Amino acid sequence: QVQLVESGGGLGQAGGSLRLSCAASGIIFNTNRMGWYRQAAGKQRELVATITPGGATNYADSVRGRLIISRDNAKNTVYLQMNSLKPEDTAVYYCNARKYTSLSAFVDTWGPGTQVTVSS
Questions:
Q1: pLDDT reported for residue 30
Q2: Side-chain half-sphere CA neighbours of 88 within 13 A
Q3: Residue 10 — left, alpha, or beta (φ > 0 → left; ψ -120 to 50 → alpha)?
Q4: 43 and 34 in contact (C-beta within 8 Å)?
Q5: pLDDT tops 90 at residue 48
Q6: CB neighbours of 115 closer than 8 A, spacing ≥ 6?
Q7: CB-based contact 107:99 (threshold 8 Å)
């Protein structure tokens, strides 16, 4: 059974830091693109950052330079280091595992999400 479990969310202060972790089980971790998405209250879920099995990263413009995604394939874990926090980072953060089955088809697995709240 595929399972993603996020941890590390909570309350942070503007200008501070938080670190999110996502532990994966039931998948061949190093064949999945891993990512973090977030959904603020009343808004659609949006991409935050992704990282390929080889370590190539992609970031939303709103977080580039402040949030850093990384992965440890030996531990089946992906991380999101959140620096220089802003109140607009407040959202539920979801871990995503994407397995491409062809050039254009993929299977997504989602974690249950972890709340991040940034106070000003």
A1: 87
A2: 5
A3: left
A4: no
A5: yes
A6: 9, 10, 91, 92, 93
A7: yes
Reply yes or no on whether the pLDDT at 15 is more than 90: yes
Q: Which helix (H) or strand (E) holds 107?
A: strand 106-110
- Answer yes or no: are the C-beta atoms of 93 and 114 closer than 8 Å: yes
* Contact indicator for 113, 94 with CB cutoff of 8 Å: yes
Question: Has residue 74 got a pLDDT over 90?
Answer: yes
Q: Strand pairing partners for 38?
A: 46, 93
| Section 89-111 average pLDDT | 95
Q: What one-character-per-residue DSSP string does 41-77 give?
A: TTS--EEEEEE-TT--EEE-TTTTTTEEEEEETTTTE
Token pair in block for residue 25:
């089980």
12: helix, strand or coil: strand
CA dihedral (75, 78, 84, 87) positive or negative: negative
CA distance 58 to 47: 9
